[in-house]
Protein 1
Amino acid sequence: MIRNEGNGAESPVEQYLDELTRLLAAGHPRHLRYLLSETEAHLHDDVDAAIAAGAGRADAEAQAVARIGAPEALAHAELDRQRPPLREIVRRAVASGVLLAAIGAVAIGISGVIAGVIRAIGGAGAVADAGRSPLSATDCARWLAIYPGAGSCRAAATADWAAEATYYRIAVGVLGVLAVAVIAGLRRRGRLSIGLLPRIVVDSIAAAAFTGAAAWTLVLGIDALAVSSGRGWGQWLSATPVALAGAVVFAMRAVQDLRAGSGEPIRARG
Amino acid sequence: MKVDRVKGHLDLVLLSIIDQEPGHGYAVITALRERTNGNLALTEGAVYPALHRLEDLGLLISEWMPVAGRRRRIYRTTPTGRSALRAEMRDWQALVAAVDSVVRPRTSLAASS
């Protein structure tokens, strides 16, 4: 029922509800609706009871608003209730970290595949650089045993490091894919009830991490290619496009989150 | 009674009222007002976050129902809430008995002096 149809803005009850709505804006939308509905019904009940007892509407509304207490106190109590405990925040931070680590591992795996392509096209020297430092006889014997056709210890070392830069990364990527699949499967089946940090936080962290990785590997790759020996650049530049793609994807998601206003804080429930 | 004293026992009071008769927030507040003849000074708005918190804890359950032409959130106690209420009542009675045993004049001493 609409009260004070003539000028609702002057009604103490309407003013109270307007103020409460404004103060609760930071909270969960459903909790906001629930509390507003309850408060509105409460105030109108109280006004009706006072009018039935002989009070005028203006007095009845003023009394009802005074009895229910300051909107700031009510909003503060409600928002305080919605605030999650520290344990929940830590759980979500850990869960988000595990998910991001799994995604990072997948990216490392893709960079391993690209490193493998560079290695196949440009040779082991494009992916690894054995440098000029002395190599121990024991290591040389091991590398030459693995790569007998390498011709020299340094070439065998380069071949071994290039293989490691490729296959170890692919192995990490496979683990990442498995981890992502397990997490997604458990969440879909409702067996993993741990929530994540707000999407905009996760996306922003991922975008920053991938941007940093892209810049870092690009600088090292250019250094290896143009400044240093001109060898081993592939181990860095194989990761740059993957990190750059990750940065773009997560940055776009973060922008979408911002535009959609989905940077919803962690809730105690709901 | 001062507001902060009431706040310390608000859960017990709310669980007790709702356990005896499920109802919406205003009905709970009215029952509280009537049963205490208004002697429990309480900011009425404080009741709603308290009800929501008890629901978060699984001690109350609520559902929206139309009552007298308005949409109301009706609260009732859960089995867990009833157990919690019994425990709270035991604690309260123990506290009352303990305080009472200290503050009540000891008749035997009073008579002998």
Protein 2
Amino acid sequence: MSKASASQTAKTMRQLSQAAIPILIAAIALPLIGQIYLALFEPQPSANAAALIGAHVLRALPALILAGSLFGLVRVLREYEAGRFLSAEAGAAFKRVSAGAMIALIAHVAAAPILIGLIEGKNFNEMMQADTFSLCIMVFCAAMLTVGALLEDAARVLKSEHDQIV
Amino acid sequence: MNTAIAAPLARAQQLAQASSVIAVVAAIMLAITAALDVAAPGLSALPELTPGLEGTLALLHILGAQAILALPSFILAGVCLDLSRVLRAYAAGHIFTRRASAGVRKAGEGILWAMAFKCLLSPSLYSVVAEHARGNVFNLRFETFDLGLIALGFFIMVMGRVLQAAAALKAENDEIV
């Protein structure tokens, strides 16, 4: 793969992600809007609408955080598109995406289930959703965070060496 | 080299070293937990099984069905091991190399495979093996959060591919110089 084709791949992926991420957000948000509508205008008898809406929002929130953090990848791909494969901006953006994914996972595994459990009056054992699969995805995100930090710092060092030579 | 600039890199390399160890530990723990998930139903069914070929086949059937459900966890354990290799390379200072970039790509692909098995392939295969496909074979199980994870895996795979191409270019340039 030449530099031009690597940049072209990055450009195609950037365009694809700019189109796909809003669709992803819509796929998460539209059912949520439907659920909120039902809770507000067609409530079940003896159901607390506010609590129901709160639970629906909390259930969708981790996915929305994850989808929102993916927008940062557009910045990474834009740097690659410009041929700057080892840039501090790309590394920092990648680090931010990984941090966003980590926050989303913590919200998915712990924060949202606990808050939903408190709203619905469940006990602690019923609240927690931490399975090994989710924990390993967390390890994956932590590793990606390290990769982002390393790419960012390596780019800084490279730039500093280059500046010294110049 | 400017030491003030190089210090964060050295710290990040130490972090990569620690993360690679954590990734290996996570891979081992995940593999053990998944293996226990496979073995537990078989062990609990053991007293009810008849001795001989029929009982052995029934036990294998139970273990096989559970192994299908545990496949995504085994794939993720492999991803963690791949990542530990990438992080070890980074810790050794081999940051912009073809091998490390290929590792990032493989990790993204691994996440995609794990999600494919978790959401579609494992539930469908399980319905064929354990439930003899009563009803619908096409069994899709996923939450909205899984969509985000699939997108994340896909973009990491693409990033790895671009980094791999860029690392190959750098290697070519270094050879010329």
